[in-house]
Amino acid sequence: PSTYDYRRAARDALHFSKLIDRFVQNLRRVAGFDVQYFATVEPQRRLAPHLHMATRGTGPRAELRQIAAATYHQVWWPPADTVVYDGANLPVWDEDATTYVDPRTGEVLPTWDEALDALDADPDAEPMHVVRFGPQVDAKGVLAGSADADRCVRYLAKYLTKDIAECHAVETDAQARHVERLVEALRFEPCSPRCANWLRYGIQPDNPKPGMVPGYCRSKAHRREHLGYAGRRVLVSRKWSGKTMADHKADRLTWVLNALGVRPGEEGQDHAAQQPPALASVASGNHAWELARPTDPDVPPREHRLLRAVGEALKRRAQLDAARQSGLSASSEGRAA
């Protein structure tokens, strides 16, 4: 307990849902398509939330670990580390000014917008909190219809009817004290711009109302059964399409062809890129065709082949950008007309 940072643990839990959103966004950017997923959030033994996610398709596990390591979420809120008002010394609601004021001086507390403006004006400002994933990322491949697939489905589906606090039963006094300390830290941590706990740190919440008291925010994030995580327990991709990886590749090919103005089947079109990949070797009459090996004498050096591939990629990118720019110009002219 003396070395465990309960404030950081509370903030990690409060903003964990934003970290998940950022991870899915990064995953889709790297994959190049809308990755479909089914996920659940479960607390660890120390009650820190972690994610179980099943995604459709395949991908390098090392790449998945790199995405998780590079994913983070910054919370750009006013600092909430120094307690300004506590106990009986709490801000008072002024009916005439419809705002909270200092109980002794009557001075109006900074509004939420004013606090954000002060944060923007500070050149040395830092985010109130940065939440990241831990170093442990366990990625496994699961085949449909296998025993592992059934086990994973049962594991994910069981959280449809369970609260976060029910995942690990408290069995010892040390565990009970740990829960109490975390709940106490969550009690006074701001959970949103409208949280009443901002009054504790000398800032009016966004859209303040009379009767707000620090430590008594009604958000479910402060409740014991949620342990700081106010997001959805079960996360399902809203873009679940039922498409396979081959379907996604076909969609991307169709999009590129449409952007370039290429219509499959028209005369004069180069259909080489649309054909399936060639086999390693093909027998045709008295001749046998096979892919060239890197050690063959008529194969250019690897450096030349890499430069040629980069040049071809840049050429295709330039053609695609030109086609898209032409389409945007035509749309602008049509609207102007």
UniProtKB/TrEMBL annotation:
Residues 318-337 are annotated as: Disordered. It comes from the Bacteria. Residues 326-337 have a biased composition (Polar residues). Pfam families: RepSA. InterPro entries: RepSA (IPR046828). This is Replication initiation protein.
